[in-house]
Amino acid sequence: MTVAVKATVERNSNDVSAAVATMLAAKPEAIIMVSTYGSCAEFIKQTKAKGLLSRYANVSFVGTKSLAKALGPIGSGVMISQVVPSPTTEKYPWVVEYQRMIKAKGGELSYTSLEGFIAARIMVEALKRGGDASREALIRSLESMKDISLGGFPVFFAPDNHSASKFVELTVLDRNGQVRY
Question: Do 113 and 66 reside in the same domain of the chain?
């Protein structure tokens, strides 16, 4: 695919007016956003209010619950890629473990906390394998974690790959501001 048009918003700002003007002029079929929920929500609200008929997609960084709350019903159809499974799924034993731990502390299930939970599990596993807690040992340990499974979640590191996972799932907001899988 070719990117038809680009627009930026200053970091830590919700002043999306220039980006809105750019997209209104271009009328793209789809808009992929990489920003925080505040600027994304403001951008979607303004472009929809001005009649732009487009598909809106966000990366997981946006903060799914915060975006859904900020948009409410106007968020219907907004897509968000996720780098971890749904925090409510019972498909993976480690997600069930996460749910049990969050609920025991009175916390709220979210993609953000699940991602942190997975990162913590990877870190603990790397420290166990590393032999000591030095930076070098940790890096060596992480980079040796090739094709392993942490409770059904595949993890792969290498000296030239520090991404850990290729998991991606698409979610969509419904007219009630709820996430649909």
Answer: no
